[in-house]
Amino acid sequence: MTEEQKIQHLYWRAGFGLSPTAFQQKRKLPLNKVIKDLFKAAKKIQPVQMPHYNLPSAESFKAMSKAERLIKKKEIQKLTPEINLNWVRQMASDDYSCLQEKMTLFWHGHFACESKRFDYAARQINSIRAQALGNFRDLVLAISKDTSMILYLNNQQNRKNKPNENYARELMELFTIGRGNYSEQDVKEAARAFTGWFSDRKTGEFKFTERQHDADSKTFMGKTGNWNGDDIIDLILDRKETATFLARKVYRYFVNEKINDKNVALLAKVLYQSNYNIGTMMQTLFESDWFYAKQNVGVKIKSPVELLVGMSKVLNLKFGNAKSVLFPQNYLGQMLFRPPNVAGWPGGKTWIDNSTLMLRMNFAAVVFQRVELSLELKDQPEQPKARRLKNLDISGDVVALTKVFSNVKEADLGLKLEGYLLQVPFGTKDSFIETLAKEAETSEGQIKAYVLGLMSLPEYQVC
Fold first, then answer.
1. Which superkingdom does the taxonomy of this entry point to (predicted)?
2. How confident is the model at residue 379 (pLDDT cuts 50, 70, 90)?
């Protein structure tokens, strides 16, 4: 691989690809400087913006009639898509750290949770981004005290003398150490340790209720003490199996679904020896030669969000409203803040089927109004059942692309754009795409034709 190709590979895995302007700025830089700049930019934590809305107090809500409460609940429910829209815009913008956004998206899928209220959704995703490259202990502790997670996994019902094991089980099975590394008794004892970890119904903040906490002795993973939730997390992190579990998941997401045990062992060792510093592990990953090996390039199917945001960067997409991001996410199978279950989105080949592939390959054409899209939207609270949308309020342009590629010779334009847009070669020269592009009368028209053609290829679905 050339240095330029390595930089493009890096940006697809550590971000969502390069905008035309960023591509022009970074393509000739040394790879080590590009990596260093990525981590430097990610240090600035930039929260997702929350919609302006005056939430009623618990007292005023209680004083409302049943009809008024229903109206208010619907108003609040409709604001979660606004958080979704704000986050997509942020991921697509060069004004924000792509690495911070990508790590936040990764952990959003790892700690899969459905947020019922917009303020809970914003609070959770901003809590995740604050620790996305920080210390994993701090991250998992923040999630354990997060209102959305407490409600989603029933820890609000986890009380002394009547423990609820849901959160304790998923903490170990999905969030930290993985199956086969704990016992059913460990689940029961961990659940006791997390009793009294509640969400305040009035403020939505974490609240430890001591009278509902089981302070008696517990034996967890062979160690006995008056453990609380913090202690349980520490005991789990003491186990090297936890570092290995996390390293495998990171490898599958950022490198390749086909696991290389040697490389995973390196990442796990770095994570464990750095006291679970996520940034240290990720920097090791991006600086490793094997990350750029041929077998790890162009083998990852883009998730719906990666596809949407990647196109946004190239085409300067403008989303007119929340529905314009909800529809493609829902139809393609990755609705932010709405994972299918606590295990999150399975990813990989599950992203592709006959129906989703049609939208994936025609999305650029939809944006430029070459085709009319008529697809049935899957049921969701914000939309009437079986509603059909014929178009989306999304616009885009190739102004930045034209500026960057305007000096390229016409005979080389297709191959240059292919090199920018695709991670695996297609062969634009003498193809049907080139034939269509040559029919255009202007440079901008040619670029648009090439982009529409290249984005409609199966090769554009991978990175």
1. Bacteria
2. very low
Task: Identify whether the C-beta of residue 374 lies closer than 8 Å to the C-beta of residue 321.
Answer: no
**Amino acid in the structure at residue 213:** H
Taking the C-alpha atoms of residue 286 and residue 290, their distance in angstroms, rounded to an integer, is: 9
Distances (CA, A) of 377 to 10, 219, 352: 34, 49, 17
Minimal CA–CA distance to 433: which of 411, 416, 448, 453? 453
Query: Could you tell me which of 370, 460, 446, 459 has the C-alpha nearest to residue 414?
Result: 446
Tens of pLDDT, residue by residue over 250-309, are 999 999 999 999 999 999 999 999 999 999 999 999 999 999 999 999 999 999 999 999
160 with 125: CB under 8 angstroms? no
What is the number of other CB atoms lying within 10 angstroms of the CB of residue 431?
16
Q: How many CB atoms lie within 10 A of CB 210?
A: 8
The DSSP string of 160-176 is TTB---HHHHHIIIIII
Q: Could you tell me if 13 and 101 are in contact, meaning their C-beta atoms sit under 8 angstroms apart?
A: no
- Residue 380: pLDDT band (50, 70, 90) is very low
Residues contacting residue 38 through CB under 8 Å, at least 6 positions apart: 10, 14, 15, 97, 98, 99, 286
Helical spans, DSSP H, in 321-367: 323-332, 354-367
**Cα four-point dihedral sign 79, 85, 86, 88:** positive
What is the residue extent of each domain of the chain? 399-461
For residue 404, give the nearest of 345, 460, 444 by alpha carbon.
444
Q: How large is the average pLDDT for residues 237-252?
A: 98
Q: Which of 435, 437, 431 is nearest to 452 (CA)?
A: 437
In this predicted structure, what is the pLDDT of residue 68? 81
Q: At what angle do helices 3-14 and 31-42 cross, to 10 degrees?
A: 20
With beta carbons less than 8 A apart as the criterion, state whether 83 and 51 touch: yes
**Long-range pairs for 369-376: beta carbons < 8 A, 24 or more residues apart:** 370/452, 375/327, 375/331
Angle, alpha carbons 36-251-144 (nearest 5°): 90
Task: Reply yes or no on whether the pLDDT at 413 is more than 60.
Answer: yes
Return the axis-axis angle of helices 410-421 and 443-455, rounded to nearest 10°. Answer: 40
Q: Global pTM?
A: 0.94
**Residue type (1 letter), 412:** D
Exposed (0-12), middle (13-18) or buried (19+): which is 265, by Cβ within 10 Å?
Answer: middle
Sort residue 298 into left (φ over 0), alpha (ψ -120 to 50) or beta: left
- Which of 91-100, 369-378, 382-391, 402-411 ranks highest by mean pLDDT? 91-100
Distance CA 36, CA 423 (A): 23
Q: Read off the DSSP letter of residue 156.
A: G
